[in-house]
Amino acid sequence: MLLIAAGVMLFRTPARSLSPLRAAPVVGQEAEPRALPETVPEATPRTREQKRFNRYDKDRNALITRDEYLASRRKAYARLDLDKDGRLSFDEWAVKTTDKFAAADTDKSGSMTAAEFVATAPKRKAPVRVKCPPAGAPAGREEEEG
Question: Membrane-crossing residues (predicted)?
Fold first, then answer.
């Protein structure tokens, strides 16, 4: 009984920080809260185009050669060329689709029923939902419901 009571007491005591760091000031007490911008900063079309240019310009000489421009296609081709003979057969080109068909054709009949075809539908990523605090609420604290 004493061990159980000691365990309950141990887990109910508030956590203490061993860190010498001080707590950040609460918004509105010691420091003025910074106003959030009205709009979210967005990359300009010129900035996006410069980043795209830099992805291709591998040697950073401000010029994109034919080889630099085709490098991404060569890598994609090499991934498809399974037997590494430098030639792409139809089966190598369509390997993803044929694998998808084979996985969906569960009864191995060589054809898909409507129920089997459902498995070939593209998988959609769910949108990321971020719960933001209401405007003016102190950061890092949840609203209490009463």
Answer: none
Among residues 76, 77, 72, 120, which one has the least CA distance to residue 99?
120
Residues 6+ apart with CB under 8 A from 98: 91
pLDDT tens-place string over residues 49-89: 899 899 999 999 999 999 999 998 899 899 999 899 999 89
CA end-to-end span of the chain = 37
Task: Give the separation between CA 101 and CA 112, rounded to whole angstroms.
Answer: 8
Please, where are the H alpha helices in the chain? 2-12, 45-56, 66-80, 90-93, 95-104, 114-117
127 in Cβ contact with 121 (< 8 Å): no
Query: Which amino acid is present at 87?
Result: R
CA–CA dist 64, 72 (Å, integer)? 13
One-letter amino acid of 12: R
41-57 core/surface letters (b: 16 or more CB in 10 A; e: else): eeeeeeeeeeeeeeeee
pTM comes to 0.39
